[in-house]
Write a structure and sequence with these properties.
Rossmann fold; about 30% helix; globular; alpha/beta; about 25% strand
């Protein structure tokens, strides 16, 4: 995979809170802390996996990066531009250079539009007087046909509608749409979780091939650690709005340190009996994001929790000199 020493995306102490309003006057009585102090960096040409249970804040992070939801605090720098303070022209450029692939291949495509119009719509939205060629329908159709071939579909499908395709084919259409503006980064919001296992591998192989061909950078959101292991160079594990562990993919899978990460890894199905280990179990339900636990948010479910874990928030810090392996746990 391509890679340089430059960071294309830097996220520092990002927070996204949603106000809870009650009463006739809709007064704010509290906040849902969906993202609460998330920091990470993504090198150009690399893939960062953002992993965690449903509701941990992964998708909110993705939406905040593009200012689709407002950030409460923090800093996001993409290609040397501060996203959260960018003016309208700068934000428009950023949204051309960062594309999204959505989780639901059914709900993310307009059923009233043809494949040609769906894939080519970003060209229409982001065209300008200085880009007259982009405005022409002939150029758009040629560009769409080329991208359909790139993602494994026939250019003859250009006048068909989404209901005429399978789930895997619809996701390929979504991938073609994400590529049409030649982005530098693509955020994949669980792009294979709604697909059959056999189709998942095809889509992941396609994304790998496209990354190699176009030198793309990915933020890959998932809850399946097996998928992330195959596709990602580095992994950040989220729990209740915070990153609890972060490391290179190989290092994380060989030497997971946080009890939550260990439990997630133990839940990955293993075909070979020799590779099957004892499953790490933790009890209880995920606490409320409105009233999160004090100290380490995982402590109510953690078998290693002690008094300090209940009282003090563990910092995300490096374990070992120059390892790049970060973990937020008092017991590690």
């Amino acid at each position: 995979m391509a890679g340089t020493n430059d960071y294309l995306l830097t996220v520092d102490n990002l927070k996204t809170y949603f106000a809870i309003r009650k009463g006739l006057l809709r007064r704010t009585v509290g906040y849902i802390k969906a993202v609460d102090g998330v920091s990470f960096k993504v090198r150009s040409g690399r893939v960062l996996g953002l992993v965690g249970e449903s509701g941990c804040g992964k998708t909110t992070v993705a939406r905040t990066l593009l200012r689709l939801v407002p950030a409460t605090a923090g800093r996001v720098v993409f290609d040397q531009t501060d996203v959260l303070s960018a003016n309208k022209p700068e934000l428009r450029r950023i949204r051309r250079e960062i594309s999204l692939i959505f989780q639901d291949p059914y709900g993310s495509l307009n059923p009233r539009m043809t494949v040609g119009d769906i894939v080519g719509e970003p060209l229409k939205i982001h065209s300008s007087a200085a880009r007259q060629a982009v405005r022409s329908r002939a150029y758009k159709m040629q560009r769409v046909a080329t991208l359909l071939s790139k993602v494994g579909l026939s250019p003859e499908h250009i006048n068909r509608y989404p209901h005429e395709f399978s789930g895997g084919q619809r996701q390929r259409i979504g991938i073609a749409r994400a590529l049409v503006l030649e982005p530098k980064m693509i955020i994949c919001d669980e792009p294979v979780s709604a697909l059959d296992v056999s189709i998942q591998s095809q889509i992941l192989n396609l994304l790998k091939d496209l990354q190699d061909e176009f030198g793309l950078t990915f933020v890959f959101i998932a809850h399946d650690l097996a998928v992330v292991q195959f596709f990602c160079d580095a992994v950040a594990v989220m729990y209740m709005g915070r990153i609890v562990e972060q490391a290179d993919s190989e290092q994380l899978y060989q030497n997971a340190l946080h009890p939550y990460t260990q439990a997630l890894l133990s839940a990955i199905p293993q075909v070979a009996p020799a590779h099957r280990g004892q499953r790490e179990a933790f009890g209880g339900e995920v606490p409320s994001a409105v009233t999160p636990p004090s100290g380490c948010r995982f402590h109510p479910r953690c078998p290693l929790a002690e008094t300090k874990c209940r009282r003090e928030v563990p910092p995300l810090q490096e374990k070992g000199p120059k390892t790049g392996h970060l973990v937020a746990c008092w017991q590690r």
